[in-house]
Task: structure prediction
Amino acid sequence: MSVVRVLGSRAAGKTTYLTALASFAKKQANFSVTPINDEAKKLANWAENILEQGGRLTPTDAEKSPNELPSYLFLIEGKQRFQKQRIDLSIRDYSGEIFEKMAQDSMLDQKTQSHINSCLNKDITGCLIMLTAWEKSEDNKYRKALDYFTRTMEIRKRDQNLRLALVMGKCERGEIWPGRIEPETDLFDLYLPSTKKLLEARIPSKNLGFFAVSAFGVLGKNDPRPNRIDEYGKEGTHAVLRDPELWQPYNLLAPIFWAGRL
Ligand SMILES: Nc1nc2c(ncn2[C@@H]2O[C@H](COP(=O)(O)OP(=O)(O)O)[C@@H](O)[C@H]2O)c(=O)[nH]1
Ligand SMILES: [Mg+2]
Result:
């Protein structure tokens, strides 16, 4: 079983990513993603709601203890670069609050610390760190959070043997869509240099991966406009698919296959 954890800043798109993954099978001929447990099935059923009507899953509850958070079980099968692949995946996403707290200077409360520790248990294969912004101030924030996280990795003796996939989400956005092809240089070196430097200093390069994903994607091969519109509702803006018929999320599986490889 590959056990993967998803961390990242608030509203980075973590839950939407998992939702898109859960219902991905319907849209891709060469891959199947089968929800195994009830939690995963629920997520798959939510997909339409979230992607087409912009409903939001309630944000992951930071008050819950790690064991109370749902783990989604999926069987993913398919071909990647002409090779058959199969992954039994257990994946869980954490509240963005945890990531935000790691970026602050104050001491972490015990609950937050126990969440972080639970991402570093021996059975965890890899972590996806989902990020969304590219401003200088965010680079600082991300660096701080990951400074804390990688120091905890070291304390818990996972700094040499846990894969970290740095994932830039919402990559259908026009400013960064061209950078998706080589995210390491064209997104992370360019926009988040101090975050990247820190990680390179702490984590062996074989355990460090850089990815760009989008739960929404663009309208077509020859039409790079985002397949997304922002709707304004009671709870602020949220993104929904512009044309559900053309839904083609980008690169959802690559970070999972990489971080979950046994
Ligand atoms: N543009 C864009 N927006 C997205 C994408 N994925 C999620 N979002 C939006 O980002 C907001 C936060 O998403 P959510 O999954 O709840 O974030 P979480 O807090 O990290 O779990 C919502 O308004 C989503 O519609 C994406 O791939 N592209
Ligand atoms: Mg969430």
Observations:
- The mean pLDDT is 90.
- The radius of gyration is 17 Å.
